[in-house]
Design brief:
By secondary structure, the protein is of the alpha+beta class. The protein is built from 4 helices and 5 strands; from the N terminus they run ββββαβααα. The longest helix has 22 residues. It starts with a strand and ends with a helix.
Amino acid sequence: MAVKIRLKRFGKKFNAHYRIVVMDGRAKRDGYAIEEVGKYQPMQEPSFMEVKSERVQYWLGVGAQPTEQVRAILKVTGDWQKFKGLPGAEGTLKQPKEKEAFVAPEGKSVVTEAITPKKKGGGSEKASTDEAAPEEAPAAEAEKAE
């Protein structure tokens, strides 16, 4: 029996994710798998790759042949180099960046309110008179105080 390490597709249309599985080479793409040895999600940034290294090394050791796509994933994770005894066994897998909380620079305040005033009601004439009224009120109060 020809054993292959290949991708088994899951997910919706245009949102695929895969499991890396060990299967009989004659089985359907999404058919019965002998063993699941990893996951691959290409839609994330960077792509998510998780491989059970011990199990992949075992299956490669007993003669399972990876497909081209799986071989590329194994090269990124470093498992192919480890199997072949090549340098660079650490691979080139990118780790996702953690989201950093926004910190305002020193001396700067963070605006938490809307920059433009909220418009009330129907017409634009009413909105323009509402905007002008607060500007005139402090001037009138200043004159009364003197």
